[in-house]
UniProtKB/TrEMBL annotation:
Transmembrane segments: none
Domain of life: Eukaryota
GO molecular function: zinc ion binding
InterPro entries: E3_ubiquitin-ligase_RING (IPR052667), Znf-RING_euk (IPR027370), Znf_RING (IPR001841), Znf_RING/FYVE/PHD (IPR013083), Znf_RING_CS (IPR017907)
Ranges in coiled-coil conformation: 8-46
PROSITE patterns registered for this protein in UniProt: ZF_RING_1, ZF_RING_2
Domain RING-type: 115-159
Protein name (record): RING-type domain-containing protein
Keywords noted in UniProt: Coiled coil, Metal-binding, Zinc, Zinc-finger
Any Pfam family the entry gives: zf-RING_UBOX
Length: 181
């Protein structure tokens, strides 16, 4: 019995030691969690502060940019557009002249300048305007009209159907690249 009491006291002492260790560990963990939470809060505040600083700088830059006269900017842009248009037109004309000379030397039109079905040259007018099928091939509007059926237009080159009603054929994209060359 005495032995039992001694064993019980030893066990109670061990339990008390374990309880104290558990309490100490729990207190340390609580402190660590509080420290980490405080550190995260501090980092979040710093991050928000940096974001606000960047936003202030952006606003300052915007104010400086808008202080430049909008009229001057518009005039400058308009002037540059005119220069670009003039250059574009002269380049296109030069390109056209080169093609015409090459065609005169060869004695016939380049194959991409005419419809591959009726062999008529593409033109600005509706009937001979180049239209692009969904597959990417180009044919003139007149041939497109002749090929159209209720299901759409079946490309004669690769047999891919372009779904478009006959009355909406005008809505197919016009191949301006062919017209401008």
């Amino acid at each position: 019995m005495e032995h039992r009491r001694v064993v019980m006291e030893e066990l109670m002492d061990k339990i008390n030691v374990l309880r104290r260790e558990f309490g100490d560990t729990n207190a340390r963990l609580t402190e660590d969690v509080e420290f980490a939470t405080n550190k995260n809060i501090k980092l979040e505040r710093e991050k928000k502060g940096r974001i606000l600083e960047i936003m202030r700088k952006d606003q300052k830059i915007l104010r400086l940019q808008t202080s430049v006269s909008d009229e001057k900017i518009e005039k400058f842009i308009e002037k540059e557009h005119k220069k670009t248009d003039v250059l574009h037109k002269s380049i296109m004309e030069a390109h056209k002249e080169i093609l015409i000379r090459q065609e005169e030397q060869d004695g016939e039109l380049k194959p991409w300048r005419k419809c591959r079905i009726c062999f008529e040259e593409y033109e600005e007018e509706l009937e001979h305007s180049p239209r692009v099928l969904e597959c990417g091939h180009t044919v003139c509007y007149r041939c497109l009209w002749k090929m159209a059926d209720p299901d759409g237009v079946l490309c004669p080159f690769d047999r891919i159907t372009t779904i478009c009603r006959k009355r909406n054929l005008r809505l197919l994209l016009k191949n301006f690249a062919v017209l401008q060359m």
